[in-house]
């Protein structure tokens, strides 16, 4: 059954707001593992999301809107977070069918597409202490769930949060954190925490 036409807009804006509201936490996490700029970068990226998505209306072609958002995200400086976030959104755009109605199956389709493009770009796997530790378990829930989308998104958000929490016990394989060895133990990966907030925001936005 078709959903409200701007449901994806609401979900993405709510996800961006959830991240933006926690940039100080993301900065603190990155100070322990990297150069401390992840929170600042995510503040820039979420502002781009607000600027790009707010103008969407009932006549907006979602595929075109997501492609434009990808281009804008790619222009944000600040390490690997920008290109990786852009890859995630580009995967959504690639999976979106022009003029397709917004349905639960459509939401599932674009979120699975986001994972595929992200994996192709990052090459990271679960256990590498990266964004993937949140994205992969959330995607598994979305891919395999046989329940309603409300429950699916809630379970995906919990899986992302659990995956992010697990990064505290991992050694880093990517980024600056890989140079500090055992000292990264006990600290969660800020990128994975970002995507835990993202999926939590998607779940919240689905109900708005």
UniProtKB/TrEMBL annotation:
Pfam families the record matches: Dak2
State the UniProt keywords alphabetically. Glycerol metabolism, Kinase, Transferase
SMART domains documented for this protein: Dak2
The protein's annotated catalytic reaction(s) are: dihydroxyacetone + phosphoenolpyruvate = dihydroxyacetone phosphate + pyruvate
EC category: transferase
Query: Which Enzyme Commission number(s) are on file for it?
Result: 2.7.1.121
> In its UniProt record, which GO terms are filed under biological process?
glycerol catabolic process
Q: Which domain of life is it from?
A: Bacteria
Function recorded in the entry: ADP-binding subunit of the dihydroxyacetone kinase, which is responsible for the phosphoenolpyruvate (PEP)-dependent phosphorylation of dihydroxyacetone. DhaL-ADP is converted to DhaL-ATP via a phosphoryl group transfer from DhaM and transmits it to dihydroxyacetone binds to DhaK.
Q: Provide the assembly information.
A: Homodimer. The dihydroxyacetone kinase complex is composed of a homodimer of DhaM, a homodimer of DhaK and the subunit DhaL.
Q: Please give the PANTHER family that the UniProt record associates with this protein.
A: TRIOKINASE/FMN CYCLASE (PTHR28629), TRIOKINASE_FMN CYCLASE (PTHR28629:SF4)
Q: What is this protein called?
A: phosphoenolpyruvate--glycerone phosphotransferase
């Amino acid at each position: 059954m078709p959903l409200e036409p701007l449901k994806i807009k609401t979900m993405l804006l709510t996800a961006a707001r959830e991240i933006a509201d926690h940039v100080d936490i993301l900065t603190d996490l990155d100070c322990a593992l990297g150069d401390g700029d992840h929170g600042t970068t995510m503040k820039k990226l979420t502002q781009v999301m607000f600027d790009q998505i707010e103008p969407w209306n009932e006549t907006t072609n979602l595929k075109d809107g997501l492609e434009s958002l990808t281009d804008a995200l790619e222009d944000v400086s600040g390490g690997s977070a920008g290109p990786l976030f852009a890859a995630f959104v580009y995967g959504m755009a690639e999976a979106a069918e022009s003029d397709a109605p917004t349905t639960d199956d459509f939401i599932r389709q674009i979120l699975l597409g986001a994972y595929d493009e992200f994996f192709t770009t990052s090459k990271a796997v679960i256990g590498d202490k990266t964004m993937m530790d949140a994205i992969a378990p959330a995607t598994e829930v979305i891919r395999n769930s046989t329940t309603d989308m409300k429950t699916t998104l809630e379970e995906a958000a919990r899986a992302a949060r659990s995956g992010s929490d697990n990064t505290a016990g991992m050694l880093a394989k990517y980024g600056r954190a890989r140079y500090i060895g055992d000292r990264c133990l006990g600290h969660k990966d800020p990128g994975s925490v970002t995507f835990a907030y993202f999926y939590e925001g998607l779940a919240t936005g689905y109900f708005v």
